[in-house]
Automatic annotation (TrEMBL):
Subcellular location: Cell membrane
Signal sequence, renumbered to the chain: 1-20
Homology family: Belongs to the PstS family.
Membrane topology qualifier: Lipid-anchor
PANTHER family from the UniProt entry: PERIPLASMIC PHOSPHATE BINDING COMPONENT OF PHOSPHATE ABC TRANSPORTER, PHOSPHATE-BINDING PROTEIN PSTS
Protein name (record): Phosphate-binding protein
Main location: membrane
Subunit architecture: The complex is composed of two ATP-binding proteins (PstB), two transmembrane proteins (PstC and PstA) and a solute-binding protein (PstS).
Bias type Acidic residues, positions: 38-50
Pfam family, one: PBP_like_2
CDD domains cross-referenced by the UniProt entry: PBP2_phosphate_like_2 (cd13654)
Keywords, comma-separated and alphabetical: Cell membrane, Lipoprotein, Membrane, Palmitate, Phosphate transport, Signal, Transport
Amino acid sequence: MKNWKYFMMTTMVGSALALGACGDDAETTEKETPTEEVTTDTAEEPEAVLEGDVSGDGSSTVAPIMEALVEEYAAVQEAVKVTVGVSGTGGGFERFIAGETDFSNASRPIKDEEKAELEAAGIAYTEFQIANDGLSVVVSKDNTWVEDLTVEDLKKMWIEDGTTKKWSDINPEWPAEEIVFYSPGTDSGTYDYFDEVILDEADLVKKATLSEDDNVLVQGVQGDKNAIAFFGYAYYLANQDTLKVVKIGGVEPTNETIESGEYSPLSRPLFVYASNKALSEKPAAYDFMKFSLENAGEMAEAVGYVKLQDAAYEKGLADLEAVK
């Protein structure tokens, strides 16, 4: 755009000079008017290039949104390097508390003990909600018997009670086959949320395969008709050709039921917690967070989560501006 503007300005000036030189040579005046030198300043100040490193870590559930934001941001600010780890919500907070990251992604609200540790470390922070999620319970497409489960069914299945869990224990009409469990790891905010609303802090079944990597859970369920797992809605959508989502209390997770809260109790908010020091002292960190809040809704929808109301993002931007 700047080259085009420069071309138009120099063309217009050149035309004006040419027209001034095209008078009739035969017509002269006794006293020539001195010609004023025409000068134009077409040089533009070069735009400042934003540079720096920004680091984050945390929730694997938030990761698809953040990865999309990082990719889009790289096209806007090529000299800023943003790196984001996926060690789970709890693991992300550990690094955040240690002062190793500028922001931490979380699929649950920050815990009181984490708040206390941040305060003790002298780290002030700001909470930004970026999207909503519906924690999704899934089975294999080859599972032909499970369509709907209640919260009580989930408790009976997932809480350790010393027995071998079989599908027929939940419904006598279902196969007398052992249930194979796949769960997010204990550092995951998804695990924490499930623990809060389903397990009531009781022990998870001991035979469950745990992983911080949701793709491991997806692959486990895909390959076993007796398997069941839970993880973020986006991971279900990305694999819905090979997975079947289970209704909870007759309600299927969709954008509409998650946003309205009808998909209860497994609808939940997703967060980014950012260091106030990084936001105020690192222009790249502030700029990336501003870009994230301005584009989080679009990116959330693009990767399969549910965007917030515009007012929520406007509040986030106002909170961000207050920190600067």
